[in-house]
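Example for tutorial group B:
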């Protein structure tokens, strides 16, 4: 039974990550001509397109993507108790766990994106790859405010380090 719970939680985590990445890339106004962004869109279209027929966008807010993120978080939180035979969670607890899961997944996504962004800027500065373009679009809205507070010192940009520290602190507070 533990293997089945693991399988369902992993699949739902990957689905949550995919729809969350799509939403974050929309919010950061990423270039969707990028092959990686396009693959995320194609991967999530079977879920998002039918939802868009029911839930039109409100301004810049893609309600279909938001609902998909919430639904996958709710499913992910509900899988373990239901499959282990513990029964469904109380509604408020279920919603709280889902909100924490969305926050945690978002923070981990930004943490790993910033780490990859910093590593690519050290390994291959001045070059372009589709991954680098996607990471720039995703990470710059987070790193820009930190750069205003902490300017580059000695020619090094320390904003990814401080962003990682803040993200880890927030993850500790979520526990």
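The residue assignment follows.
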């Amino acid at each position: 039974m533990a293997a089945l719970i693991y399988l369902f939680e992993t699949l739902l985590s990957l689905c949550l990550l995919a729809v969350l990445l799509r939403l974050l890339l929309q919010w950061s106004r990423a270039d969707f001509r990028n092959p990686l962004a396009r693959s995320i869109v194609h991967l999530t279209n079977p879920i998002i397109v039918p939802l868009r027929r029911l839930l039109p966008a409100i301004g810049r807010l893609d309600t279909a993507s938001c609902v998909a993120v919430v639904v996958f978080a709710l499913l992910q939180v509900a899988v373990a108790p239901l499959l282990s035979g513990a029964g469904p969670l109380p509604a408020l607890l279920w919603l709280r766990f889902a909100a924490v899961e969305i926050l945690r997944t978002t923070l981990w996504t930004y943490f790993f994106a910033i780490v990859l962004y910093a590593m690519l800027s050290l390994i291959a500065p001045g070059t372009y790859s589709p991954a680098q373009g996607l990471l720039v679009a995703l990470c710059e809205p987070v790193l820009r405010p930190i750069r205003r507070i902490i300017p580059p010192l000695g020619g090094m940009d320390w904003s990814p380090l401080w962003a990682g520290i803040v993200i880890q602190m927030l993850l500790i507070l979520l526990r």
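Helices lie at 2-27, 35-54, 63-83, 91-123, 130-149, 159-174. Compare this with the pattern of hydrophobic and polar residues in the output above.
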